[in-house]
Amino acid sequence: MLVPRTLQTKLLALARKFPVVTVTGPRQSGKTTLCRACFPDHRYVSLEAPDLREYASRDPRAFLAHAGDAAVLDEVQRVPELLSYLQVEVDARPRRGRFILTGSANFALLHSISQSLAGRTALLTLLPLGRDELRRFPAAPRTLYETLWKGSFPAVFDRELSPTDWYSAYVGTYVERDVRQVLNVGDLISFQGFLRLCAGRVGQLLNLSGLGADAGITHGTARAWVSVLEASYIAHRLPPYGANVGARVVKTPKLHFYDSGLACFLLGIRNPEQLEHHPLRGAIFETWVISEILKARVHRGLQPSLFFFRDRKAVEVDAVLECGDGVLAVETKSGQTVADDFFTGLEAFARQVGSPRHRLRVLRALVYGGDAAQARSNVDVIPWSQIDAYDWCGNARGAQ
C-alpha cells in the first residue's frame, strides 16, 4: 500500500530549485518508494545491483550517459567516486530536479557529497513512519504499547508482517551488509551484543567507558561503534542543552533509538503485554516521543534543534526544542494518569532558564501515556495518541 509521506512536499519543492536532491535515512525507511513515486518519469537505477555498481565504478561517464537526462540513483554511497563525475555532468547541464539520489550510510554519503556536490544538492532525511503517516495504514496499531512495540518501519504495516520476524531479518541484514561496509568489524557477534547493550541504555546518558566495559571492548572502539549506529540511522546522540545556562549543566549526551520497535526487539520484548510491564517501558516511551518530534521536523525539511536538559542538582527535562526566540521544554511520562509530580522538572527548568537573567521565553509540554488532553494554565498536556497533532515546528510565543 502506497501512502503519502510528509517529506514529499519538501522533496518536490527542492527539486524545483536544485539540480540534485539527496535523500538519506535508514535502510527500509521508504526512500526508494518515495522518490520513485514523486518522480515517475525519471529513470530508476539501483546501485545495489552488482553489475550496475561495477558499471558505474568502471566507466562513470558512460553510466551517467546511460542514466539519461533525469534519473533516480538509489544507494549512491555504494559508488562514492561517481559523485565527482556527477558534479561535472550537473555543471554542464544544470537542469533543476535532474538527479534524485538516495543513500543509507549517512557519514559516507555526506562526506562524498560535501566533497563533490556542495552547493548543487539539497539534503533531506527520511526516517521511518511518523504517527501521522502510520495512521494511513489499515493495520495501524491502536494502543500505546502496540505502537511502541511494532515500531514504525513501513514494511511491518504494508505487508502486515510479524514485527519479531521482520526485525530479526533487518538486524541480520544490517550487521552483515551495512556494518561491513562502513567499518571493519571483525567480530560481528560482539557488535550484535553491543547493539543490544545500546538498546538497554535508551534514554540514558551515554557512558562510553561503561558501555565498552560491558561489551568487552575498548572505550575507543565503543565510540567508533556508536558512530556506526548513528551513520546508519539506528541510534543517535541527543545533545545536552546548555545555552546561557552555566557550567552546572551535564554535558554528556543521551542515547536514543530512531525506532522503538527495533529497541524492543533487541531487548527481547516479543509482545505489547510484555512491554507494558517491562522496567524500561518509560525509557522506550521517551525514545519514541523524541523520534516523533524529530520526524515532525526533518520530514518538513527543518533542522532537529532538539536537546535535553539536566543539571547537577537533578533538574531534568527530556527534550528542549529551540524555536524562535524561546524554547519548548518537553517532559515524557508513560503513565496513563497525570500526576502533579509530572510537572516538577518543567517548572524547575522554566524558573532556571526562563529567569530574567537568561531572558528566554519558555513553553512547556507534557506527553503522557493517557488518552485525554488536559488544559493546564502553563503546560500543554498531550496524550500519546495526539502527538502528531501538536505543532513541533512553530515558534515559541508564550510567556513564563
What does this molecule look like?
By secondary structure, the protein is α/β, with parallel strands linked by helices. Among the domains are: 7-125, Rossmann fold; 131-235 and 255-280, no CATH class. The chain is 41% helix and 17% strand. It is built from 17 helices and 14 strands. The protein has helices at 7-15, 31-38, 50-58, 60-67, 82-92, 106-116, 131-134, 144-150, 154-158, 163-182, 188-199, 208-215, 219-231, 260-266, 272-276, 281-298, 344-353; strands at residues 20-24, 43-46, 71-74, 99-103, 121-125, 204-205, 235-238, 254-257, 306-310, 316-323, 326-333, 361-368, 374-375, 380-383. The protein has a six-stranded mixed beta sheet with strand order 9-10-11-12-14-13, with helices on both faces. Helix 5 (82-92) links the parallel strand 3 (71-74) and strand 4. The longest helix has 20 residues, at 163-182. It is globular and about 65 Å long. The N and C termini lie far apart (45 Å).
